[in-house]
Write a structure and sequence with these properties.
The chain is an alpha/beta fold. It has 24 helices and 15 strands. The chain has three domains: about 150 residues, Chitobiase, domain 2 (2-Layer Sandwich), CATH 3.30.379; about 325 residues, TIM Barrel (Alpha-Beta Barrel); about 200 residues, Alpha-d-glucuronidase, C-terminal Domain, CATH 3.90.1330.10. The strands form three sheets. An eight-stranded parallel beta barrel has the order 6-7-8-9-10-11-12-13. The chain binds beta-D-glucopyranuronic acid (BDP).
Length: about 725
C-alpha cells in the first residue's frame, strides 16, 4: 500500500490538464485496494518484440499496467507470468495451437492457467494482431474493475470489415465534421508522421477497428494521384502495426479527370485498363491496400448510370481491378436521383434489389441504417433482408450531422442497437439486421460495418467528451453487433471517467436516455428531416422550395390544417411494401405501428387518439416539451457528479484516480457548458417547431404548455451561414 502511494506521488505532474486527448485509454491510477488486487495477479511480462505489432502489444500492456496499478516492486514475486504471443512466437503458446486455430486471424485467448508447473496469464492469438486486441481486452477488464480470477476468454470478431469512413477533403475540411479540421495533414505527409496518427491507430485497435477510408465519399479524383498515394502510404505504414488497413474513396470519373480519357463507361476497355493500372500502382505504394469506397450516381456524383450501366457494372469494374490484389469494393446504396419522382425513402431499394446476385464476390453493398439519411430515428433500411445473395454492410453515422452536432450529448449506442436488433423477418422471426450484417442469416463470410467518423484535430478528437462514446460504441458493435448499448456505455464511462459505481450509474442512465431526448425535441413520433437547410444546424421544419423537393422539410412532414405525416402505406407511396410481409403489415396498420414511427408511415389527423389518450396535436407538443425536460434532467444529473479539487488548490498534480468517485474539473466544466448549450438549443427546437406546426394546425396549445417566446417569423429569420461541417 505504502509502495503504491509512493509511486503515485512520484508521478511527474501532468503537463496538460485533462482535456480528453487520452480517450478511453487514460489508464488513470485505480483505487488503491483494486490496484493492490491486480498487482498480485501480474508478474513478469514475457513478450516477443520482433515485429512492430508485437512491440505495440507489449508497450500498450506495460503502459496500461504502469498507469493503472503502478510499477510494483513486488511484481514477479509469486504472481503469474504474463505471456504474450502466437504459436509462432512462443513455444509455450504453441501448446495451445488447437484452441487458437478456432479463433481466426483476429481472435485471441486470455487464460489464467498452469503450464509446466508455472502459473501463467496468457494473452495468446493465432496472429500478432490478436495479441494486441487481447492486450486491450485485458486492460479494459482492469479499467472497469472486473475480476481476473479464473480468467478464460475467447473472442473473435463477428464482422470482417470494421471501418471508419472519414469524410475528409484534401484541403482539411471535414464534411459534416464538428471536431475541427481533418486529422490528416496532407501538406506535411509523407515525411512528417504526427504522433497523433499512432494514437488514432491505438484507439481504433483498442476497439478492433481494422480499416479506415481516408477521404470523403464526395471524392476528389486527386486522392488517387501518385503524390497523394505516397501520403496515404505513409499513413498506412503508421497504421499497419495496429491491424488497420487503408482504403480510399474513388471518384467514378477519375479515368477522365486523372487519365484524360473521354469516358468513364465501365464497359469500355480503355476505362477498364485505366483502373487496372491505377490499382496496380496503388498496390505498389500500399501493398496491403484495402480497396475502394464508392458513392456513385447520388447527389450529383458521377457513376455508371451516366453511361446507361448499372450499379453492378460500376462496382464490378473496380472489383475486377482489385481482385488479384485481394482488395474489395464497398459500393454505397445511398442512392437517389432528383429526377425520380418516387418517395426518396423507396429509391435505394428500387435501384438495388434487382441487382441481387449480380456483384462480384469482392463487392459488398454498403447500406445506411435507415432509408432516408441518418435521422434521429428511422426504421431499419428495407434493403436489409431483401438481397440475400449479396453481402450487405451497415453504414452508421457517428458524427452527429442530424443530432445537434458535437455539443449535444446524444449517445448513439442505443440508436445502433435499435437498428441492429430490428427484425427484418426475411427468414422468419429472429432475422435481425445484426444477423444480416454479420452474415449468419444468409451464410456470407464477407461482412462489414462502417461508421462515418466524428474525428478531427480537436484535442477531444470528437469535438466533445461524450462524442468519444459514439466512436467507442461503434467500434464495439462492429466487433460484436449483439452487444448491449448499456454495457458498452458502462465500460466507456468507467474507462473515460472512473469505474466508481457512483460515477458509472448516473452517467450511464443519462446516456441511455439521451437519444430519445433528442428525438423528442427534434423529430418526435416518426417525423424526420426537419433540420435547417444545408448545414442542418437547428430547426427548419418550414424549409421548402429550392433545387429539389426531397431536400425540404415540407416534403417529409406534409403537415396542413388537417394532419401531419408521410403516408407510406398503399394509399400513399407504399414504401412500406418494401419490407417483409410481417413487418410491412405491422407498419402499415395505424393501430399496430409503433408510435415512435407513426408519422414516418402515416399521414394522421391532428385529433387522432394516441396511446396516452391525448390527441396527436397535444401529444406532439408534449413530446417537444418532454425533450427539453429530459435535457434539463441531464444537466441536473451532471451537476451532481462530484469533481476533484483543481490542481492549483491542491498545490500538486491532480490524482483523480486517488478519488475515484470524482471527475476532473476540466472535463466536468466543459461538459456542463455543452449541456447548457444543448438545453438552450433543445428549447429553440421545441419553440420553433411548435410555432411552425401551430401555424398549420391552428390548434391551441394544451393547458400548461408555454407559448413560444417569439413569433414564427423570428425563428424562420435565423441564419447561420458559418455553421460548421457543411457539405462542399
Ligand atoms: C448526407 C450528408 C452529405 C453526404 C451524404 C452521403 O448531408 O454531406 O455527402 O449524406 O452520405 O447525409 O453521401
Amino acid at each position: 500500500m505504502l509502495g503504491f502511494i509512493a509511486v503515485l506521488l512520484a508521478c511527474p505532474p501532468s503537463v496538460r490538464a485533462e482535456d480528453g486527448y487520452k480517450l478511453w485509454l487514460r489508464y488513470a491510477p485505480l483505487a488503491p485496494s483494486l490496484a493492490a488486487t491486480y498487482r498480485a495477479q501480474f508478474g513478469a511480462v514475457e513478450a516477443p518484440t520482433e515485429t512492430a505489432t508485437q512491440r505495440a502489444a507489449r508497450d500498450e500492456l506495460l503502459r496500461g499496467l504502469a498507469g493503472l496499478i503502478g510499477e510494483s516492486p513486488r511484481r514477479g514475486e509469486g504472481a503469474p507470468t504474463v505471456v504474450l504471443g502466437t504459436p509462432a512466437s512462443s513455444t509455450l503458446i504453441a501448446a495451445f495451437r488447437d484452441e487458437l486455430d478456432a479463433l481466426g486471424n483476429e481472435g485471441y485467448l486470455l487464460k489464467h492457467t498452469r503450464v509446466h508447473g508455472r502459473d501463467v496469464l496468457l494473452i495468446a492469438a493465432p496472429q500478432d494482431v490478436g495479441v494486441l486486441y487481447g492486450v486491450f481486452d485485458l486492460l479494459r477488464r482492469l479499467q472497469t474493475g472486473q475480476s481476473l480470477e479464473a480468467l478464460e476468454v475467447r473472442e473473435k470478431p463477428r464482422i470482417r470489415l470494421r471501418v471508419l469512413d472519414h469524410w475528409d477533403n484534401l484541403d482539411g475540411h471535414v464534411e459534416r465534421g464538428y471536431a475541427g479540421r481533418s486529422l490528416w495533414d496532407w501538406q506535411t505527409l509523407p515525411e512528417w508522421h504526427d504522433p497523433r496518427y499512432t494514437d488514432y491507430a491505438r484507439a481504433n485497435a483498442s476497439l478492433g477497428i481494422n480499416g479506415t477510408v481516408l477521404n470523403n465519399v464526395n471524392a476528389n479524383a486527386r486522392s488517387l494521384a501518385p503524390e497523394y498515394l505516397a501520403k496515404a502510404a505513409a499513413l498506412a505504414d503508421v497504421f499497419r502495426p495496429y491491424g488497420i488497413r487503408v482504403y480510399l474513396s474513388a471518384r467514378f470519373s477519375a479515368p477522365i479527370e486523372l487519365g484524360g480519357l473521354s469516358t468513364a463507361d465501365p464497359l469500355d476497355p480503355a476505362v477498364q485498363r485505366w483502373w487496372q493500372h491505377k490499382v496496380d500502382e496503388i498496390y505498389r505504394f500500399i501493398p496491403d491496400f484495402g480497396g475502394f469506397l464508392v458513392k456513385a450516381n447520388s447527389e450529383g456524383q458521377p457513376g455508371p448510370q451516366d453511361y446507361g450501366r448499372t450499379h453492378a457494372d460500376g462496382a464490378n469494374l473496380l472489383a475486377d481491378a482489385l481482385a488479384a490484389h485481394g482488395g474489395v469494393v464497398m459500393w454505397r446504396a445511398f442512392v437517389y436521383a432528383h429526377d425520380v419522382p418516387a418517395d426518396r425513402a423507396s429509391q435505394a431499394y428500387t435501384e438495388f434489389v434487382g441487382l441481387d446476385g449480380a456483384f462480384r464476390p469482392n463487392v459488398i453493398v454498403q447500406v445506411k441504417n435507415g432509408p432516408i439519411d441518418f435521422q434521429p430515428r428511422e426504421p431499419f433500411h428495407p434493403l436489409f433482408g431483401a438481397m440475400p445473395r449479396t453481402p450487405l454492410m451497415m453504414e452508421f453515422q457517428i458524427t452527429k450531422e442530424y443530432l445537434g452536432f458535437a455539443t449535444h450529448l446524444v449517445y448513439l449506442g442505443t440508436l445502433y442497437e435499435e437498428v441492429l436488433q430490428s427484425d427484418t423477418r426475411a427468414r422468419g422471426a429472429g432475422s435481425t439486421v445484426a444477423r444480416v450484417v454479420d452474415g449468419s442469416l444468409e451464410g456470407h463470410a464477407f461482412t462489414g460495418m462502417a461508421g462515418v467518423a466524428n474525428i478531427g484535430n480537436d484535442r477531444t478528437w470528437s469535438g466533445s467528451h461524450f462524442d468519444q462514446a459514439n466512436w467507442y460504441a461503434f467500434g464495439r458493435l462492429a466487433w460484436n453487433p449483439d452487444q448491449a448499448a448499456r454495457d458498452i456505455a458502462a465500460d466507456w464511462v468507467a474507462m473515460t471517467f472512473s469505474p466508481a459505481p457512483e460515477v458509472v450509474r448516473p452517467i450511464v442512465e443519462m446516456m441511455m436516455a439521451s437519444r430519445e431526448a433528442a428525438v423528442n425535441y427534434m423529430t418526435p413520433l416518426g417525423l424526420h428531416h426537419l433540420m435547417a437547410r444545408g448545414h442542418h444546424y437547428g430547426p427548419g421544419p418550414w424549409v421548402e422550395g429550392g433545387p429539389r423537393a426531397d431536400w425540404t422539410s415540407v416534403y417529409y412532414h406534409r403537415a396542413d390544417r388537417d394532419g401531419i405525416g408521410f403516408d407510406r402505406t398503399a394509399s400513399g407511396s407504399n414504401a412500406v411494401a418494401q419490407y417483409a410481409p410481417a413487418v410491412a403489415a405491422r407498419y402499415a396498420d395505424i393501430t399496430q405501428v409503433p408510435e415512435s414511427l407513426l408519422l414516418w408511415f402515416h399521414h394522421v389527423p391532428w385529433d387522432h387518439r394516441m396511446a396516452s389518450g391525448r390527441s396527436l396535436w397535444d401529444e406532439l407538443v408534449a413530446r417537444y416539451s418532454q425533450g427539453v425536460q429530459q435535457v434539463q434532467a441531464m444537466r441536473a444529473t451532471w451537476a451532481d457528479i462530484p469533481t476533484a479539487a483543481p490542481e492549483h488548490q491542491r498545490g500538486r498534480a491532480p490524482l483523480y484516480g486517488a478519488d475515484p468517485a470524482a471527475i476532473d474539473p476540466e472535463r466536468h466544466a466543459q461538459i456542463a457548458a455543452s449541456l447548457q448549450i444543448q438545453r438552450r438549443e433543445a428549447q429553440w427546437w421545441r419553440d420553433a417547431s411548435i410555432a411552425y406546426f401551430q401555424s398549420l394546425s391552428g390548434r391551441p396549445l394544451p393547458a400548461g404548455e408555454p407559448t413560444p417566446p417569439h413569433p414564427l417569423a423570428w425563428y424562420q429569420a435565423q441564419q447561420f451561414p458559418s455553421a460548421p461541417g457543411d457539405g462542399r
